[in-house]
Write a structure and sequence with these properties.
There is one protein chain. By secondary structure, the protein is an alpha+beta fold. The protein has 2 domains: 142 residues, Four Helix Bundle (Hemerythrin (Met), subunit A) (Up-down Bundle), CATH 1.20.120; 287 residues, paralog of FGE (formylglycine-generating enzyme). The protein has 9 helices and 12 strands. The strands form 4 sheets. The chain has a 4-stranded mixed beta sheet with strand order 10-9-8-11. Helix 1 packs parallel to helix 5, helix 3 packs parallel to helix 4 and helix 3 runs antiparallel to helix 5. The chain binds fe (ii) ion. The site of fe (ii) ion has 5 residues, from helix 3 and helix 5. Pfam families: DinB_2, FGE-sulfatase.
Length: 442
Amino acid sequence: MAALEAARRRTELLTDAVDEADLLAQHSPLMSPLVWDLAHIGSQEDLWLVREAGGRPGLRPDLDHVYDAFRTPRADRPALPLLSPEQARAYLAAVREQTADVLATVDTSPEQPDRLLAGAFVFGMLAQHEQQHDETMLATHQLRSGPPVLDAPAPPPAPADAALLPSEVHIPGGPFTMGTSTEPWALDNELPAHQVDVPGFWLDTVPVTNGAYAEFIAAGGYDDPVWWTPEGWAHVREAGLEAPLFWERDGEGWTRRVFGRTEPVAADEPVVHVCWYEADAYARWAGRRLPTEAEWEKAARHDPATGRSRRYPWGDAEPGPEHANLGQRHLRPAPAGSYPQGAAPSGARQLLGDVWEWTSSDFAPYPGFAAFPYKEYSEVFFGPDYKVLRGGAFGVSPVVARGTFRNWDYPIRRQIFAGFRTARDEEPAERQADPAPGAGRG
Ligand SMILES: [Fe+2]
């Protein structure tokens, strides 16, 4: 209930910040009107918690088709017979009352044979669903024009050692456990845990910064097809891309718009709002490449001292403000090198929080994957059309940001809070075996 209530407070913050007309408006064809997301949150809770898990008739089954994300693309949603903001708020409150009642009456013990209820999975699934729509609504806020309506303190400045960090960290070769079979609220695409052998590689210690990315632009990176895949080059030409989304030229430098405010681009912050093609081109220009999804997860979770995979880069403790920039506490990424207490065993920082990180991998099922509870959650997206993002951005809730969580999107998408870091293969002379579990621990 606490996870559901935290999600609801954030939903209210994002939707109470604007007036009725703004809730009904479509701020971008890429996004739904905010009032669609709002009622969709209630409709999914009505369907999965009240009806499927609770075995009750539900409040508004007649709304299922209006708020079915697969039925109507985002651009067409303003034409649907949507609930008004007032009706949507009343609907969400009424559904939540039933949810509380369901929670009070069902058995959520891990031994419960109904997989929806075991370990309260369906409650976790809905809390994550609402938080993910909150993140989508945050992206809508970033796209809307007009005066700023959201406010949050800036993240703390980078720690003193940030400037002294090595540019890359080494991840020794060897097998590690990818995915999970034990996280109670993991979604189907994170299951099951399985061994993956990852050759040794080097990974950027921190995400690529605005300053580094601006060098790529200044060096003519957007004008030279040599850095781009053929699809990326066709897209960058056709879409006229010349900088991350929301950047504007300002003399020799750049400004960018951040939730309605225009400011100079901060050189030491991770770059955000770049598409996969831009990330891939930058990496090639830098003489490097994007990490694979398995490399990213190994860097984030594998503990060479024990041989096991951690829940989070820093260990198994739930994310706190000292570990990562998550949960919309701030409205921007923290400077590169922040959160030393959130570092992975390899020394890499900010793997969770700040910006989603594009990987080179297509979204694919793990060996032994089984769709649950419905194949539209993950299965219909598997294949070469979608690239995997890992790590979670500043607007991602801690309830979502597990070390195993997988996100995916089209390689042209830029309105999401996505950045990246780069990697390179290990040279033969740099090869070091992964120490045996327990080695070197007195
Ligand atoms: Fe949804």
